[in-house]
Every structure is written in structure tokens, then in C-alpha cells.
Specification:
This protein is mainly beta. The chain has one helix at about 5-20, and strands at about 25-30, 35-45, 50-55, 55-65, 65-70, 75-80, 85, 90-95, 100-110.
């Protein structure tokens, strides 16, 4: 059994993102490239984004801190602390409206790649 504090991981990654030239940081919390399930805490400074990319499988974004915008084509959803966004099965991007941390949960479909690194 393993216990993780998502609040602590979010704080840690927000601090790292603030120091990073790209304004973002990430840490895999559960799983990894050799697992079907992968959960990653991603922090983005205000105005930063994960550029448009394909969905590697079923995915959700849980907002741990801040406010983000998930954009897929002409459709967008905004999420705040505590919200869970279901990632659409198409090309999309994630933008930080303010300094934000999210928990990205992905279950890869057979034959599809891993999510983009932060």
C-alpha cells in the first residue's frame, strides 16, 4: 500500500514550475510508461500550456490548485480547484489561467502512446 499527499505534490510542482524556464513541472505519482494507468501531477504557471496533442487513451484532469482551460477545437471547458474534466478523445491542449496544478489520469489504450511530458 502506498499513500501520497496530492496537496504536497501540487505545492512541490508549483514551486518547481516557478523556478523552471518553461514555467511548468511534472511528477508521476502512480504508474508510468510500463503501466496502463498513469497519474501525473502537472503544474503550470499562469499563461503556460501543454501544447495541442492527441489523447493517448481515456483521461481526466482533476484540478488540485488554480484554474485551467481545456481546449479541443472550438470547444473549451474551464476547471477550478476540485473540478474533474474528462479529456475528449481528440486533439486538445491545457492552459493555465492562473498558477495551477492538476492530476492527469490516463489509461492508455493498446497501441497508443504516452501523454506529453511537461
Amino acid at each position: 500500500m502506498q499513500k501520497l499527499s496530492l496537496d504536497a505534490l501540487a505545492r512541490e510542482q508549483l514551486e518547481a514550475a516557478g523556478r523552471a524556464p518553461a514555467g511548468r513541472a511534472a511528477r508521476t505519482a502512480v504508474g508510468g510508461h510500463d503501466h496502463a494507468l498513469r497519474q501525473t501531477v502537472i503544474a503550470l504557471c499562469a499563461g503556460q500550456e501543454l501544447a495541442e496533442h492527441e489523447n493517448p487513451g481515456e483521461a481526466t484532469v482533476q484540478v488540485l490548485h488554480g484554474r485551467v482551460r481545456l481546449v479541443a477545437g472550438d470547444t473549451e471547458w474551464e476547471g477550478r480547484h476540485g473540478d474533474l474534466l474528462v479529456v475528449p478523445p481528440r486533439s486538445h491542449r491545457l492552459e493555465a489561467v492562473v498558477d495551477s496544478a492538476v492530476l492527469l489520469t490516463v489509461v492508455k489504450q493498446p497501441g497508443r502512446g504516452a501523454p506529453p511530458a511537461a
